[in-house]
Batch of 2 targets.
Target 1
Amino acid sequence: MGQLLGQTHDRQTKRREWVAVVDDDPSIRSSLARLLRSDGFDVETFSSSPEFFAAISDGPPACLVLDVHLGTASGFDLQDSLAATHAEVPVILITGHDKITSAELTRRAGPDGYLRKPFDGDRIIGMVRRRTEILDSPA
């Protein structure tokens, strides 16, 4: 169905083969989708939490790139809801707001798990690669 790092996967048989981007800004969604697809990732984009959760009934993504501010909603709330059922999904938080402290972002996503907009394309590709490779490696 999709391709991740050059490997074909079937969503029914493989639990991790796609990257989700959730951001309320259509230009950010399309830019991230183009960037990640150019590196071989299968990407699906969503503008809201409800849209994202409606789409993951076949299984969670390999990685979630998540905007902290989703209009009136909070990306942190989406992250908490996802963790309640799919705790193993790595999340990369992105934000363009300075109101959120680096300490809070680090607590939520780890020291290398967030980016402030605008961000470097190579950096986000590297972050997604590392998170999906860790999950795909044999235990």
Target 2
Amino acid sequence: MNTSNQFCPNEACSARGQIGAGNITIHDRKRHRYRCKICKRIFSARHGTMFEGLRKPMELIVIVVTLLSYGCPVQAIVHAFGLDERTVASWRDRAGIHCERIHQALIETGKLDLVRVQADEIRVRGRNMIAWMGLCAVSVYMKFLRNAGEGESKASRTPNLPGVETQREK
């Protein structure tokens, strides 16, 4: 357990969010719990993550959620790992909620440094329609940022986003 990577999650604490400030001590090694010296609150290493309150190993949960993200059927995961179907569905829902929170906190508030952004588009042809979909990805982190929009622009099919340089602009 490394206290230098932890910070106090208590919103009322004056040391909230300060990593490596020396205010965090180990409270319980077995249950991976820490204690803040300033506000005296005890918190888990999993606090604020999708793993909070779960008792299964994080490695198993990550494998199951990864398989789900690649389209593996819930029934196959249940059979392969001996889990309950409700457990797998709960983990899927937790992962979705957590990803939505991260998306809102980082991407929608604009707290990312968009120095290198890769923009791409795809043309989808359907019945009686043609749709263009743009996607931007931070090449350093490879995190998908947002659906840039639909519809075809005359100058560039990729919508103009702040900090995004298209091939035509180069």
